[in-house]
Amino acid sequence: MGCGTWAWGNRLLWGYDESMDAQLQEVFDVCVGNGVTLFDTGDSYGTGKLKGQSEKLLGKFAQAYVGLNCDRLCLATKLAAYPWRLTRGSMVAACKASAERLGRNVDLAQMHWSTANYFPWQEGALLDGLADLSEMGLVKGVGLSNYGSKRLKWVYRKLRDRGVPISTLQVQYSLLSTYPVTELGLKDVCDELGIQLIAYSPLALGLLTGKYSENNVPKGIRGVLFRQLIPGIQPILDCLRAIAADREKTPSQVALNWCICKGTIPIPGAKTVAQAKENIGALGWQLDGGEIEALDRTVDRLDKVMVQNIFQTK
Ligand SMILES: NC(=O)c1ccc[n+]([C@@H]2O[C@H](COP(=O)([O-])OP(=O)(O)OC[C@H]3O[C@@H](n4cnc5c(N)ncnc54)[C@H](OP(=O)(O)O)[C@@H]3O)[C@@H](O)[C@H]2O)c1
To answer: Is the pTM here over 0.85, yes or no?
Structure first.
């Protein structure tokens, strides 16, 4: 695939407005200049008048960028399994529409979620469409998102019969969301099938940065969720802070490094250059066995953890 070993998520959600575009271009430039070359977006990111905005922005940033690592860019998008996408052709059309918004071919096309939990009959045609994209040479690779081990194995067999490998699987994975690996066993299955595991929301939407507290939560639905979680997650924040202080790193950097140590590629979302630079500081070093064990032991004993994505399958 030629993707980098580090990536940036590009979801237009928490508090985006168009006045942020110049700042986000800077974030993009800093990331690529520092070797962060995999960027993840989705055709469902941005609604109403901002429909498709995340892909449009990413395409604009990539086009404007000149400099180091320019030739190593990997633009990944996720194609939504909307209820009105019913045929293989609808996936091909969706990917072409994403390419149009990006102003270049999609490098990695991912099925955003499985319909197994509600319309299992819908999925076969969409996966055929995903494989068509690879066969038609419209993408360099295909991937999945929010699949559990059982469903992943089923898709793997289906695509293998057509000679199409699955490059990546992205799931919600962080110190506050270990379920995909500890309960579903996805890391072992991915290793066995030659699939790279990508960790989305690796900072638990910002909670693991340690900057939020009961008296300081972000606006909107994230604030509601954070209020419920913050009292129960103090032990892991304390553990992150202690390791960070010891290593002269920040809690965010330790939380992201933990994802890397677990063999995943984290795709943190960064809104500012300062956040991007901080997150890039999670690269180039490794937590030791004792530190990883301390973090693992602490999360095992937590009262509360992140809720799983409703589309995550078994
Ligand atoms: N496949 C899927 O279904 C799916 C679902 C969700 C996400 N994703 C992907 O994963 C990407 C990242 O996930 P996410 O944005 O949900 O969660 P995340 O990476 O865990 O959290 C990102 C948020 O944390 C804060 N932050 C990031 N770095 C920081 C730093 N160094 N210091 C302080 N605050 C920092 C920022 O928000 P504030 O500054 O506002 O706190 C930022 O928006 C998305 O962009 C998307 O590409 C995929």
So the answer is: yes
